[in-house]
Amino acid sequence: MAKFTHTGHAIWIVAMIAGLAGCGENEQAKPVTKPVPPPPTTTHIVGGSVSGLPGSGLVLQLNGANDLAVSSNGTFSFPKALAKGSAYSVTVKASPSSPVKQACTVVQGSGKIANAEINNIAVACTTNSFAVGGTVSGLPGKGPGNKLILQLNGANDLAIASNGKFIFPDIRLPDGSDYSVAIKAIPAKLKCTIKSTSAAFDKDTLNIVSVTCSKKGRRK
Predict the structure, then answer these.
(1) What is the DSSP letter of 42?
(2) Average pLDDT, stretch 57-63?
């Protein structure tokens, strides 16, 4: 009986050790899964061309930020690239101001980025133009021979019969251009003088001269 008990105990120990060995083999056989890195983001540059620009002051924006100053005609591109599928919008933040004031328009300035660079945005700048006028005082009123005649740049006659503001019709001068207003004819028995002014009627009309008339021999 003692021998039987001892043998059975040994068999039980061997079986337990074999079971433990089998568990270790199963744990080592499990594969290790590594995370897959995301694909790289595809980005593209946004740009185009500028025309009609004689100087500086033009500032463009991409999506309401990313200011880009442009000082010459030709191609431009924003340094910041945008991801594929992103929306883009190019606008004018500041208009050119030197040597002349201009207004610029953007064509094909918005869209969504596909699989290529954006290089077809067109920015066209044109020089602002202004109506030309002034003021007259001292005219006696309407009547034969009571018209004051002014000239703009040696032509463009304008007959004035009453006091107040005047504007040369159908004439606009580009910003920065030369001009000369002169008296061509004076009403009878009057003398008229002209002088330059620096005031403006509004943002569209230049008030460049002041004409004052009075009766001959009368002191002011």
Answers:
(1) P
(2) 97
Please, which residues have CB within 8 angstroms of residue 127's CB and are 6 or more apart in sequence?
Answer: 52, 54, 100, 101, 102, 174, 175, 176
Tokens of 80: 């910041």
Distance CA 41, CA 10 (A): 65
**C-alpha dihedral sign at 61, 67, 72, 78:** negative
Longest CA–CA separation in the chain, Å: 161
Query: pLDDT for 118-142, tens place per residue?
Result: 999 999 999 999 999 999 999 987 6
Q: Parse the chain into domains and list their residue ranges.
A: 43-127, 129-215
Q: Is the dihedral of CA 93, 46, 85, 112 positive or negative?
A: positive
For 113, list phi and psi in degrees, rounded to 5.
-75, 130
Residue type, 110: S
Query: Please, what is the average pLDDT of the chain?
Result: 85
Count the helices and strands in the chain (H runs, E runs).
1, 18
- Residue pair 122/106 in contact (Cβ under 8 Å)? The answer is yes
For residue 152 the two structure tokens come to 């703009």
Examine residue 99 and say whether the peptide bond preceding it is cis (omega within 30 degrees of 0): yes
What CATH class has 43-127? mainly beta
> Is pLDDT above 60 for 90?
yes
> What span, in angstroms and rounded, lies between the C-alpha atoms of 75 and 118?
12
